[in-house]
Structure formats: C-alpha cells, structure tokens
Amino acid sequence: MKINRHYLDLEKSxxxxxxxxxxxxxxxxxxxxxxxxLGIGDVTLPLCPAVVSALxxxxxxxxxxxxxxxxxxxQGYDFLREAxxxxxxxxxxxxxxxxxxxxxxxxxxxxxxxxxxxKDNTVLVPDPVYPVYVDTNVMAGxxxxxxxxxxxxxxxxxxxxxxDADIIYICSPNNPTGAVYTHDxxxxxVDYAKKKDAVIxxxxxxxxxxxxxxxxxxxxxxxxxKEVAIEFCSFSKTAGFTGTRCGYTVVPKALVREGAExxxxxxxxxxxxxxxxxxxxxxxxxxxxxxxxxxxxRANIDxxxxxAKVLADTLDSLGIRYTGGKNSPYIWMECPNGMKSWDxxxxxxxxxxxxxxxxxxxxxxxxxxxxxxxxxxxxNTAEAAERLKKLLGELLNR
Length: 398
Description:
Helices cover 39% and strands 15% of the residues. By secondary structure, the protein is α/β, with parallel strands linked by helices.
C-alpha cells in the first residue's frame, strides 16, 4: 500500500480553517467581544419565499406513495435542467438539456472535473486565486503555473503565448479580487485556448452580481467558447443555497479532445461516482427561475450590492485603492501603509473586531491585499464600515 504523497505538498490546513482557528482563539481570550465577519463568502439572508414554498411542497410529495421519489437521474431532473437552459437563453446562449449537469455545488465539480484529464497536463491559474483550483491539482500531482494578477493589470491577467497550458482556470467575477473580464478579454482567452488545444474551466459562481450589462455573465457569450470551455455555476450566491447545496456544470458537446466528447466523459463519471442532488433541493432550485423567484433573489442580491457600496464608499473616503464592489460581492483592498496581509488581519481583529481574509492566503500576489465580503446584514456592514474608517484613519494619519 502506498499513500498519495502529493497530499504532503499541500499546506497543512485550508485558508478558512486557519482564519476560523484564529477567530476562535481571539474570542476565547476576549469573551463578549463583538465580532463582525466579512471574511468567508457565506450568505446571511434566508432562502426566498418562492424557494421555501417549493421545498415544502416537494417535502410533502416525498411523504405520499404516489409522488414519492427514490434515486433520481445523476445528471439532474429534466424540470431543473430545462429551467437552467431557459435562463441561459436570456443571456443569448443556447444549450442542449443534456449539456447541463446538476451538482451539489460548484466547488465539488471544479475539483471532480479533473477526473477527465491526464495527470501530465499543465494547469494555468491566476495568482491570487481561489485555493481549491490549486489544491485539487496538487493532490493529483499536476504541474501548476501561474498568470500574474496584479494591480497593474487590474487583477485580470491576459494570455501569454510563451506559456504552454492544457487546463486554464478563469473566475469572473473573480474570487478573491472582484475583477470582471470584458467580452474582448474573454475572447482573447478563448482564442488562446484554441491555439494551445487547451480547456478553460470557467467559474461563473458570482455571475448574478454583474450589474453592468456590457460585461459577460457566461463564457458562452463569446463566439467559439463551446469548443474550449466548461462552465461551473452555483445557487449558493444566486439564491442563498450555501446550506442547501445545489449547482450545475455545463459541458458542451462541441468540446472534443483527442476524438472524444468530454460531455460523454463527464456523464460517465457522474453516473459512476455521483448519486445526484436530492429531489427536494432540485425543486427548490427550479423555483429560483420562476418569475417570483427571480424577483425575490434579485432583491437579495441588491441587498448585498448595497453592503458592497457601503464598504467601497468607506474606502473611497480614505483614498484606499481596491477592486471589486460594483459587479462583485467582494472588495479587494490594498493594506494600509504597506502592511503584510496577516498583520493587517490580526490588527483588524484585535483593534476593530472585524474579520476579513488575508490576500496572502490566495497566493504570492495577494500579499499586501485584503478581501472583504458584502455577505452580512446592513446593520453589521455599516458598523464594520465605521470601525474600518476609524482604524484606517488612525493608521493613515500616523
């Protein structure tokens, strides 16, 4: 028996686990201290009424012999896949129903999709980056190279023809930086992938926060993208399903490598290793796409957008540089006075009782930056903004 020694190449713990340990230790030594969390990207508003109603109805169905459901299709029920296809039509994108696969969330599929690819492939990820992209490939022993995302390029790295890559990760709106690619920028990545015979793994988990109609919300809005890209999306941020768990992955039939359709590969993988998302949850997800559900989820998204504006306005008043906050629930701010990310984390926790995410946890280019999220209620966000303003004002005036 031999272990997978690539696990030894990983950091000993996950970024957000480290943050939780630090916060727990602080709270233990400061009982009663008010802590406002703007760190992890977990929503705080409840599921909307349309979704709750659908969940209740589906639950009742499961208690009646005539409407009880057992094992469902691993790729998702037709009623939800049809609803997702109609949602894409509104973006000007036509999908076949069997190109859509329902999952328990984008995070799972972003890691599981790697079953389709050889371990000798080279993986290109931006830096800073969502840790899952890197860790899942390190676990498999793949070579990972980085595209530098910096303040100079607006944290939106572009293709470099001198770099060879087989698998390319793109997240737009980006986690952690909040930056969003334009149509022309994504077209450049599609053209690069065609030139390199590469596959783009496009994470669109935050597409619902794009308010600027000129910005793409799906990579399939770019001509030719179906030949090179797999897209992942989730109901977590769209409709508050972080505790309910549901997402979907699109694998176009036009995506062919070495004479094989990757759509067929993914179907085979899912039918072998995945038992599908519960019927009750899929009925809840279907309700998101009803007229009532769309109105209610948009109201929740607008609520978080207001929080992002409060934080952005605070940083604007202090003259602190940042990206995000307008088409993204994340604000990626520059640490004051050249501070290191973890040093600023500790200071913010100890002096202001506010929790964020150190940029260094997302890669070397994240050092000196800090991520704040809009996923809290208005009252807490406003209080956090005041605490930030006070602390940062003192630091900048030293």
